[in-house]
Amino acid sequence: MRVTRFACLVVTSALLGCGGGGSDDGGTTNPPPPPPPNNQTLGSISTSPSTLTLVAGNTQAITVSAFDAAGAVIVNPGTPVFSSASAAIAEVDASGTVMGVAQGSTTINVSLTLGGVTRTASVATAVTGILPFQSAVSTVSGDVFTPNKVAISQGGTVTWTFGGTEHTVVFSGVGSPSGITSGGYSSSHSRTFAQTGNFSYVCTIHAGMSGQVIVR
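The structure corresponding to this sequence follows.
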C-alpha cells in the first residue's frame, strides 16, 4: 500500500513539473514587429517647388517627397523620374534640375514607383527672357566643371577658366568647336558655337568630369 501511494506521488510531481503546457510569459504571444519603412504603401508624392519660374539659361532643382496612405513621410522611397512636356522651353535632367531654354510655358512631369504603385505630380514651369550670348565655366574648385551645364544663344561664346591643375575639354557631336587643353596653369579659353544643339564634353584626364553646352 505504501508503494502504491509513493508511485502516485511521483507521477503527480512529474505532471506538475511539466507545467501543464504553460509558459514563462503567462501564455501570451508577442505581436509581430511592424513592417520596415520600405514596405509602406505609396500614397502620394509632392514636389518642391510646386511651380517654377526661370530666366532662360538659369537652372533650379526640383525635390520630391513621398508619403504613405496615412500621410507619413516615406524615407528613401526610390528615385523619381523626370520629363519635360517641351524640352524646347525647359529641359530637365535625371536629378531633377530644370534649365530654362526659351520663353514660354511647359510642365515638368514627375513619377515615382514603389512596391508596384506609381504616383505622379507635375510642376508648371514658365521661362522668361532669352538665352545669353556669353557664359562661363570654371574648374578652380577642383576636378569638376562649374556649372556643368550652360545654355547660350546660337553664335554665342563660352569661356572656360582653369586653375593650376591641367584639364582638357573634348567635345563630342557634329558641329562642336575644337577642344581645349589648359596646360596645368591658370588660364582662360573661349569657344564660339555656330550651330544649335546639345554639345557634351569631358576632361580626358579626370574620369567622370563632364559638362554640356546647350545652344538654341
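The longest strand covers residues 117-128.
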